[in-house]
Amino acid sequence: MKKRSKRYQNLIKTKKIEKKIKLSETLDLVKKNSTTKFDESIDVSIRINLKQSKGGDFSLRTTVKLPNGSGKKEKIAVLCEPDKVSDSKKSGAEIVGSDDLIEKIASGKFDFTKLICTPAMMGKIGKHGKVLGPKGLMPNPKLGTVSNDINKAVKDIKSGLVEVRNDKDGNLASSIGRKSYSTEKLEENYNYFIDSIKKEKPDTIKGEFIKNTYITSTMGISYKVGGK
Question: How far is 27 from 179, CA to CA, in rounded Å?
């Protein structure tokens, strides 16, 4: 049997499983149990219904721009044409390049968490999908990472645009802030995130789209929203 740490055992004692509690109270408990020294991420985990009445299982991949941001610091790289490099450097991206950036990607020597690409450069970056894809770095128009408006694309990511994608079992997760956020800001982000996911429900899925929802922190315990 896996041995739990003393810290975890103390946290689990605070968990209220006997009654339904309000969202604000759940967030307060999650923040209270964020006892590490660093600014833990507050995360929401959702299981959605994938079963469509026709057409096979549904797959969700989208972005949500949280009103108060996620608190995550992204290191953004921009891949653009040589004549756009100078202007793109003013966008706020940490790395900007053209063929030189492609060479770094090809060699596996790159250090960024998001890659934005102009449409004209997609033909050149496409063959490196096997390297970028598994790391979740391949630019995608649906995710706002393929654009001619570099300034807007960088600003959106910096201001709290989060990517959402379900696994084969219908589970998806996202950060909705940090423990340093006020409960009000976390609650606003949570409600906006849930509403955004609900809007993605296709007509071919009957019944409830969101099956269950949990909130936790990086090193804390999870709480089911809405009760047991």
Answer: 9
